[in-house]
Amino acid sequence: MKTRVAIIIIFLLLLNSSFIILNSFAQWEPDVRLTNDPGYSYTSWNNAWCVAANGNIVHAVWYDERDTYEEIYYKRSTDGGINWGADTRLTNHSGWSENPSIAVSGSLVHVVWADSRDGNEEIYYKRSTDDGISWDSDTRLTNNLSQSGDASIAVFGLLVHVVWSDSRDGNYETYYKHSTDGGINWGEDTRLTNNIYFCNYPSIAVSGSNVHVVWREYHNNILHIYYKHSIDGGINWGADTCLTNNYDYFSSPSIAVSGSNVHVVWRDNRNGNLEIYYKRSTDGGIIWETDTRLTDNTADSEYPSIAVSGSNVHVVWNDKRDGNMEIYYKHSTSGGVVWSSDIRLTNASQYSQMPFIAVSGTLVHVVWFDGRNFNSEIYYKRNPTGNLTSTQNISTEIPSAFSLEQNYPNPFNPRTVIRYQLSVVSNVILKVYDINGKEMHSIVKERLQPGTYETTFDGSGLNSGVYFYRMSAGNYSETKKMIIVK
After folding, report:
1. CB 359 within 8 A of CB 365
2. Domains of the chain (ranges plus CATH)?
3. pLDDT tens for residues 62-76?
């Protein structure tokens, strides 16, 4: 009898724990209206990102018509999306500026967009070195007589990478350039595609020296999703890889990366209507797994955006299953193997479109444009516990110095614990590398308060062998060795 009671108690505890975990992902807070002006405000119509976050600082960009011409606007929150500052106008000229993309690394904030001030559409860039408080002057990244648009930006430390579509060659091709000093100086344009038809809507992601790009390409009278990558920071590029292989309509690819895990989503009409599909690679883009259908309804699902944090993968899109366009969300906590059910994020009488997603710590951030006020405005929504991490603060006592301890157990299979101490508030990056220095996993990338922390690392996806884990926090960095035995 006692054994039966104990089993029931354990079952109830496990059930309650599962409920807490599932419920924590469902804690989406009310919508926040970010703009309020008579002009129309839009997020990007391409698949770049209009939201980025680092710790509790959240950055949003969009373009709107309040000043007659379309201009790029920006605003930020310094408390994780609870309160927002005033709108900041980033452009000011007589031409139009539209479709911005934003990326952040520490206090450096980078924005690119398409701009007509020079008589034709060019790509422009702007940066802030103080978390968005002040902004440098505009930098023109392209200079040709044809159209350049669909810009997407990604950043890793001082390495800034930009892709866009460009018609200088008679048809639209995907181009790339990068900066190695945080956006001060820029390299030459690199043509990534060579197609007799068109290539557009590129999306870019970066992890260390590995740069990943996807785009839409019209090939043999069919639209496909293509991919290529660089392993040396954008200097040299591998061959094009076609990710889709059936004869249907594909568009709007979005890409995210965590270590060697690369994740792509896109819209696809192979089932007779537009659905959201997903695909992943676990070896840095060399081999790709089969497609996963993320939506299944009779209405169109479009414009997906993806974000990743370790094994947590988050996707948003707009969907017409309810009669009008609404924002939907789903997530995976297993690196894209198993997915949650769809969650409807908006419930407005008018359209909600073009969502973009970012994560920081346990926070998930989404921005989109919305017509509920009979005018297109920018809206924001967050889930404060939607990105569950394995980082635990085990002591708030302030240590006298930074330290990184040896993982335990070591050797291990498949999980181990890494403990570290922070003496001041820090942007902490903790990553795992193989013996050749290739980044395999990003374990921690968030702003943490002083204290002692423990992080559980799951090496299930790695082979047996020697690996290294490295922590960076401000000016402090340290590397230690770990061993996986299977």
Report:
1. yes
2. 28-383 (2.120.10.10), 391-484 (2.60.40.1930)
3. 999 998 889 999 999
